[in-house]
Specification:
With about 240 residues, the protein is an alpha/beta fold. It contains 8 helices and 10 strands. It has one domain: Acetylglutamate kinase-like (Carbamate kinase, 3-Layer(aba) Sandwich).
Length: about 240
């Protein structure tokens, strides 16, 4: 049915965003199992969760680069690579052939160089991108996996883009703080977004803005609960639980 699927595994699902470097291995494994049996071409990306946001926030990133930032920058980058290696390990166990494409090396100029994603995808690998810190024009910037999906979608024109997060989709209000928030099965522009704690890339609000950009290049964009990845099998069905944009 689908030819090329782009996925973001949110840091909110595969880590505990409130506890530094707490990996949720079981959730990650379940997601990758579900994706691997779809048997379609995949490009995967993942967020940093508590492997990135906590130290980045404590260090005031994003910001103008100062010499004293070197160590914290280095820690965030190393923690992101650690998370990436864990995910790649699970992908291998599940029969995929991941190849990690470092965000550091693709954001050299104004726009990201996606050549390696193209090359490895065409050879049968599953390219694996990641949210990370980068240094550019005297600034410490944070590239989220959502940013990567915006760039990747414009080039690859995927049939389907999947955002996996820790809630059932996009609601009319933050489901974690508003008890009667309603899940939007399809999108409405007047949504209230609350700032997620420990998130330096803008939480659901900025994700939604990026999704609107991605939508121009993708057949379909869905936001699903990464803790219930089996729901992906219901995309297109009436009882699909998630948000279709
Ligand atoms: P991820 O790490 O998976 O990319 P984020 O942590 O950035 O995701 O965003 C997911 C969080 O956004 C949810 O845990 C939820 O509490 C919060 N959120 C705020 N407003 C909304 C909304 N209107 N709909 C859904 N989630 C929302
Ligand atoms: C953030 O990436 C990268 C860093 C903080 C270094 P994302 O913004 O994609 O991560 P999540 O999904 O929100 O955790």
């Amino acid at each position: 049915m689908f030819v090329l699927i782009l996925v973001k595994i949110g840091g909110s699902v595969i880590t505990d965003k409130n506890v530094y470097r707490r990996f949720r291995e079981d959730s990650c494994k379940k997601i990758i199992q579900t994706l691997s049996i779809l048997n379609e071409d995949l490009i995967m990306t993942h967020g940093a969760g508590s492997f990135g946001h906590i130290i980045a926030k404590k260090s005031g990133f994003p910001k103008k680069f100062k010499q004293e930032d070197v160590h914290a920058f280095s820690i965030v980058h190393k923690d992101v690579l650690d998370l990436n290696t864990r995910i790649a390990g699970i992908m291998l166990e599940e029969g995929l052939s991941p190849i990690s494409i470092p965000t550091q090396s693709i954001y050299r100029n104004g726009s990201p160089d996606l050549t390696d994603f193209k090359k490895y995808l065409s050879l049968g690998f599953t390219p694996l991108g990641m949210g990370d810190v980068i240094l550019r024009a005297g600034m410490i910037k944070i590239i989220s996996a959502d940013d990567l999906l915006v760039a990747l979608s414009a080039v690859f024109k995927p049939n389907l883009v999947i955002f996996m997060t820790d809630v059932d989709g996009i609601y009319d209000n933050d489901p974690k703080t508003v008890s009667d928030a309603k899940l939007l099965k399809s999108i409405d522009r007047n949504i209230a977004f609350s700032q997620v704690m420990n998130d330096v890339t803008g939480g659901m609000k900025s994700k939604y803005e990026k999704i609107l950009k991605i939508r121009k290049h993708a057949g379909k964009v869905v936001v699903v609960n990464g803790n219930k990845p089996e729901r992906l099998n219901d995309i297109g069905e009436k009882d699909f639980i998630g948000t279709v944009i």
